[in-house]
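Practice record 12: protein with heme C.
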Amino acid sequence: MIRKSSVVAAVALAAVAFAVLHESPAAKLARLQSRYGAVAAELGAACPYAAPEDRLAFDRCRKSLFGESRLRAELPERMLWGRARGKPLKDTPLTEFAPDVYAGLYAPLFMFEGRAEVSYDEGERLYKATLPVRFRNRLAPGLFPYPFWHDKTKWGAYQSATALVFYLRPGDGRIKAAQFQPGVVDAALAAQVDSDVAAFDGQWLWTDAEGRTQPQVTLFDGLYDAANPHLQQIDSRYRELALELREGECNDCHVPRNPKKIERLVLLQTPAHAAGEIKRILRSVRSGEMPEDENGHEKPLPPAVKARLLAKAEAFDAVLSEARAWEANKAATRR
Ligand code: HEC
């Protein structure tokens, strides 16, 4: 028997679907404005303007965004990130990120005014939300996903950022690509950029004076519970995998310097970056799609190298699953 209430629900659902499919541009704009207005308000509350070196403000912000935030809910399985260069998205190099990486390591580097303005971008033929921001440029080096100061233009652009722009997917309205808008680099900032760039020693991952792996944020430090018993294993399993990635020449292409000028870059040089891509690493190496050569053709690994890489990637994947399960279990028992 079909219950009357379920018929009513089905009719209501169909009405909503019809309304969304046939809504006017003005109605769509209003709907996206209210949706991203709420995302921006939450960002403004969790990550308000503060001093650029304020560690506590940064920690509050990243914990909140990494958790069940509205921002995270708007991130698809994979999004694109990079700086705006005054060119169409299709002609702009961008990096691909899993939600954990963007919500936990990148978005929290910004402080948010708390508002968003949604408009239609005629060039991209996409709706976009623009959020005024400032950048936390005085945090300790280990709180950045990697030293952005490896590149002068990039470091100046990040520090002068005035806004984030989220380009929205036509279908579900989630974030297809996000860019930060660079502002003015004045003489004082330019001088500081020069000295930071000169101090960069070429390492994406390093060990600090206390013997800890840095950048610490890439080990989920402060995102996962300090009592999570798998954190140490994430570090050692990643280091073992990293040796094999080097052996497989993956670092010739998949590093922030982007030596091969890849248009849609995948990063593998830290535990967090590789964690976001571990399923794709396994799939592309198993199938022989990766590594590739200069011309994009498959470049088969010697069988022993391939077997070792896969074994280390599987071990890293396994410890990540355990760490996530531990966090999920902790959250469940707390409820
Ligand atoms: C010569 C440059 C180069 C080398 C070396 C290389 N890659 Fe890639 N990789 C690319 C490019 C370009 C793409 C994006 C386009 C594509 O899929 O071909 C890519 C894409 C990927 C992706 C995303 C794949 C997907 O599912 O879309 C992964 C994961 C990856 N590479 C892993 C690796 C690993 C692991 C190694 C080392 C064993 C490696 N790559 C070596 C250039 C390279």
